[in-house]
Write a structure and sequence with these properties.
By secondary structure, the chain is of the alpha+beta class. The protein has helices spanning about 5-20, 50-70, 90-95; strands at about 25-30, 40-45, 75-80, 85-90, 100-105, 110-120, 125-130, 135-140, 145-150. The chain is about 25% helix and about 40% strand. The strands form 2 sheets. A 6-stranded antiparallel sheet has the order 4-9-5-6-7-8. A 3-stranded mixed sheet has the order 1-2-3, with helices on one face.
């Protein structure tokens, strides 16, 4: 059960100012799960987010959502980082993580995957990736998913 645009805008408007006050960035809001849904709030900050940051954010966001009661059903709140294999979705993400290794799923006649280094964005066109076959511009309209793919 995904969030409606209206729900996402309302929740974002409530949560974003609180977490920005802590120096954090609201990355994504998701409503997931069957049975008892989970509202997943993904946060990050330059240099990476730690448990202390997530704890502070939880202590601010949880009581706010209790008071605002945004859903007509019970749900679980999860505040977390986007993870090391985070999905990149916006031009801001692509610019921020330029120079990082990525895994890209591209649609065409079928979905193909490629691995490479994200070089940046060709504004209004797509992302530029250095893969084993050279530099490739991948149109925003053909992107299925882009994730960080760090060497571990």
């Amino acid at each position: 059960m995904p969030l409606s645009l209206e729900q996402e805008e309302k929740l974002s408007g409530l949560i974003r100012p609180l977490v920005e006050g802590l120096g954090l960035e609201l990355v994504k809001l998701e409503l997931t799960g069957q049975g008892r849904p989970c509202l997943r709030v993904s946060l990050d900050k330059e240099g990476g987010i730690g448990m202390e940051d997530l704890t502070k954010a939880t202590r601010l966001v949880s009581p706010l959502l209790d008071a605002e009661d945004p859903f007509s059903f019970e749900y679980q709140l999860e505040i977390s980082s986007p993870g090391i294999f985070r999905q990149l979705e916006t031009e801001k993400d692509f610019l921020r993580f330029a120079g990082s290794k990525v895994k890209v799923k591209v649609k065409g006649e079928s979905v193909r995957s490629l691995m490479g280094t994200l070089l940046g964005v060709e504004e209004g066109v797509g992302i530029v990736v250095e893969a084993e076959n050279g530099k490739e511009t991948i149109g925003f309209d053909t992107l299925v998913q882009v994730n960080l793919n760090p060497d571990l």
